[in-house]
């Protein structure tokens, strides 16, 4: 009986691992289809795209629409909670300038004003 339980556990672990890898691969293929050129054309577009796309689809960003303080808080949150490399002062300003221009308050695209429930408040 003990061998059966261990075998079942190993099978379940393998199934969970396979599902996780498949999900991660799907996310990466979706993200790899996005390009910086598809975003609003403001200074800092390529840098902002590069920072964000490393972890998630840029569609997540386009769904927001926040003021500078909220974008700044979100960068802090991504750094502290999700391991995003902290941008240096100049890069942080460039990212924030881009996000405020491209995705200001009320500009959430295709979501009816949806805001990420995990973003800092």
Task: Describe this entry's structure for a reader.
With 121 residues, this protein is mainly α. The protein has a domain of 69 residues: Cytochrome c-like domain (Cytochrome Bc1 Complex, Chain D, domain 2, Orthogonal Bundle). The protein is 61% helix and 0% strand. It is built from 5 helices and no strands. α4 packs across α5. The protein is globular and about 30 Å long. The N terminus is likely disordered.
Précis, in short:
With 121 residues, the protein is an all-alpha fold. 61% of the residues lie in helices and 0% in strands. It has helices spanning 2-33, 45-53, 59-62, 68-82, 89-102.
CATH superfamily of the domain at 34-102: Cytochrome c-like domain
CATH class of the domain at 34-102: Mainly Alpha
Compressed to H and E, one letter per element, the order equals HHHHH
By CATH, the topology of the domain at 34-102 is Cytochrome Bc1 Complex, Chain D, domain 2
> What is the share of helical residues?
55-70%
Q: How would you classify the helix and strand content by structural class?
A: mainly alpha
C-alpha-based Rg, rounded: 19 Å
The description of the largest β-sheet is: none
Q: Give the terminus-to-terminus CA distance.
A: 51 Å
